[in-house]
Amino acid sequence: MLAAATVGSRAAAATPQAVIADGARVPALVIGSGYGGSVAALRLAQAGVDVQLVEMGMAWDTPGADGKIFANTTSPDQRSFWLRTRTKQPLSNFLGFPIDKDIPRYTGILDAEEFGGIVVYQGRGVGGGSLVNGGMAVTPKRENFGAILPTVDPGEMYDTYYPRANAGLGVGLVDPAWFDSADCYQYARVGRKQAQRSGFPFVFVPDVYDWAYMQQEQAGTVPRSALAGEILYGNNYGKKSLQKTYLPRIAATGRVTVSPLHRVTTVTPASGGGYTVVVEQLDTSGAVTATKSVTADKVFFAAGSVGTSKLLVKLKATGALPNLGDEVGKGWGDNGNVMCGRANHIWDPTGSLQSSIPCGGIDNWAAGGAFAEVAPLPTGIETWASFYLSITKNPNRAQFSWNPATRSVDLNWQPAWKQPSIDMAKSIFDRINAKEGTIYRTDLFGTYKIWGDHLTYHPLGGAVLGKATDNYGRLAGYQGLYAIDGSLIPGNTSVNPFVTITALAERNIEKIIATDF
Ligand code: FAE
Fold this sequence. Notes:
Number of domains: 1
Organism: Amycolatopsis australiensis
CATH topology: FAD/NAD(P)-binding domain
Low-confidence stretches: 1-14
CATH superfamily: FAD/NAD(P)-binding domain
Number of helices: 12
EC number: 1.1.3.6, 5.3.3.1
Structural class: alpha/beta
Largest sheet: 7 strands, mixed
Shape: globular
Distance between the termini: 46 Å
Bound molecules: flavin-N7 protonated-adenine dinucleotide
Family: Belongs to the GMC oxidoreductase family.
Pathway: Steroid metabolism; cholesterol degradation
GO biological process, one term: cholesterol metabolic process
CATH architecture: 3-Layer(bba) Sandwich
Number of strands: 20
Helix content: 25-40%
């Protein structure tokens, strides 16, 4: 009986799923399957609307040759990067030596998208950024909300939509008593001790990782994921990505067709009403194997801050959607991301076993404009290093624009615009270094380079709420076109962004379903 069930489920997994058909006419098409796209698809389907969910990345439901779906952070392979022949790891060096390596070109899970002045890391696949992120699921402090989304009523967010998002995402907190004893959080306890000795509050940070599973990882009773260094290229166990939360609920509605390896290139008004959407089907080398044209009554842009902004800017400039507002492409920020490491004394080891899932941060937002996650450096050996990703109140905002010469979209972010972030992060780490008699690491981002100031994990903006759209994400200039992802948020959330992206999407789709369908 068990054998038959196993064979049956294998056969089901191997059956190709139906994908969007050329010439289809659909009521709603959602571009991208991250947080915004998943919320839109679920709520529309629950309201009785048939949805096509179109995703340029892979499904990430089939194990590779090693029996695992996702590659380990310490041994990147073709699964790790989106259409690259060499890795581009956020931490590029160790002890000053470059650690990137050649890999086969493949539609892998992490995109390191390079603009002139910044590298923007993004997840690619069904589940978007939830596949690659650290799962840190932080609701901003209410007193900061007015600066994050000034046109949104905080009452409805904190009473209804943040709780709905936290429940839907499966957010939980580490057990503080277990934290105090677990080997894998030695590095975070060092971070707490040093923060508190310098007078900074240390706060536990909620996460969507299954904390009970992590306790079993530490006890050695289950296969390890967070404790095996898995994170950037996916977690094989433990993490409640959208694959474990919104996406199964979407499947259960029976109303959503998910098309992985399908990339939307054009949206333009259709002659008989609705919109003509052109979709390219890709193979795992990134080659286009088919081009499909479908008609959708309504289109939801949920391709992420960068993906949505690039599409909208291109469609406006090339005449496909000329009436989009002039605010399209503007108000983009990096959530003030900047990284650094510190070298501890020999009597302050951070541990050779480190959970890849951060669970605490140093809050100096009000006084110094920085909230610093105490991050792991899971190398498997003792490094005496403390490592941090800071989110800072960086005021700089960039703009996407169409480049007719290259026929692509540029972003005008300048490397020097990270200086305010460095200054704000220094408000924490200069003080800790002075107190501890320690120094910054200079070997993690190059040779003699302290700051990881070339990147962001948290792109936000480009179709800002109340500017490029109305106060619910309806794009100015067209009926039936919506932005419903991180592009709506004007550049900064004061904490990690995906809970706010999810909560805002929950708020907006509820209004849109009530009034536009
Ligand atoms: P996103 O999740 O990026 O989904 C957009 C989807 O659209 C992607 O799957 C794309 O492949 C797809 N797409 C793009 N263009 C097209 C197209 N033309 N056609 C079809 N599909 C397309 O958007 N945030 C936190 O809150 N906590 C964390 O701990 C955290 N850690 C992170 C760590 C890393 C390494 C990274 C990269 C990000 C992290 N983030 C974290 C950020 C978070 O994942 C991100 O804000 C959200 O995923 C953004 O959600 P969206 O729905 O806007």
